[in-house]
Amino acid sequence: MVRKRREPEPEQSNKKQEKSDQERQNLAISLVPAKLQWRCSVAQTTLAFPNSRSIAVGEGRGRREWRVKCSSGGEIEKGAVNFGPGSPVRATNILVVGATGTLGRQIVRRALDEGYDVRCLVRPRPAPADFLRDWGATVVNADLSKPESIPATLVGIHTVIDCATGRPEEPIKTVDWEGKVALIQCAKAMGIQKYVFYSIHNCDKHPEVPLMEIKYCTEKFLRDSGLNHVIIRLCGFMQGLIGQYAVPILEEKSVWGTDAPTRIAYMDTQDIARLTFIAIRNDKLNGKLLTFAGPRAWTTQEVITLCERLAGQDANVTTVPVSILRLTRQLTRFFEWTNDVADRLSFSEVLTSDTVFSVPMAETYNLLGVDSKDIVSLEKYLQDYFTNILKKLKDLKAQSKQTDIYF
């Protein structure tokens, strides 16, 4: 007589899964050191360091050889282990980190439109992210600067989309390095199937800029973690131009520019979100580095001129020479409490140098199966904005006149 194997009761099975998930959370927490250290040396030298990268950086007539080495420190690298299967998860279960930001909110909206189950990791704050809930996403509170809060947010998640970046008042390394290392470490321990990380175009060419160096180091840490991943380098967001140029011009306030010929291929964050999910669904792109750029690279003056034409009024432009930015950066280095200001100014200096933040996109479009005609141009994006805002201003003016008549 063959005895049938007794199937576990659903309740017992659920309890086992819950126990497994809890064990994974505990393991993930135990792997994160109390304090991570970012070891990065950037110095002019002729010595070769093991496991370091070397980049030639042009300066003036000569060239300097920079040797850069970055690692997480502590025991973090030893802890990057997947501890076996937990609860089965669907590929549509995603966690968006940095969901309230300029790019993050577009990622959330696109994911919901495409039928994903979206969980948003946001910091605890006095003003909750209710708009994310209104759209249909689930919101969980955690803080990348507190690694012990991360593992619980990853339970039941298949893919992590990392859009987070530190606040201006925070040290750059707190979120952009220590927080990201902890998140990647926990993702590995919790069995996350795919990790999408947004970086900066040309970050590997500017080791002297802390923010770009940290982005490059995070890329390397993610590759070394063994997680399935896609790294997407970005050039610039069209949305950022609204507050920087469009609104001040309409309000007849000063807009700030530089005398540098830097060109940036801005991209609509809605297009970035759409291309991201195409990349996520293509398993052939696992482990790939992609760069997204808009159809054309623009100088600051060209952007201001375009806004002036569309707004129908001149801009009050205040030009800041690049030499002033460099001097300010050097002065702030004398005071420890201004080090982070200097770090951010060094990034500004790159953005105002003779640099082009753009790449040819034909190969990427072909890889993703996207028609370049479907990518929004900056002219079209700003035209739509000014058309809508000027119509609203006209309507408000008409209502104001009507109110004056009645009252």
From TrEMBL:
Name its cellular compartments: Plastid
Gene3D superfamilies assigned to the protein according to its UniProt record, in alphabetical order = NAD(P)-binding Rossmann-like Domain
What are the UniProt keywords, alphabetically? Photosynthesis, Photosystem II, Plastid
**In the UniProt record, does the keyword Plastid occur?**
yes
Instruction: Give the CC-aspect GO terms.
Output: photosystem II; plastid
Residues annotated as region Disordered?
1-24
Q: What is this protein called?
A: NmrA-like domain-containing protein
Organism from which the protein derives: Flemingia macrophylla
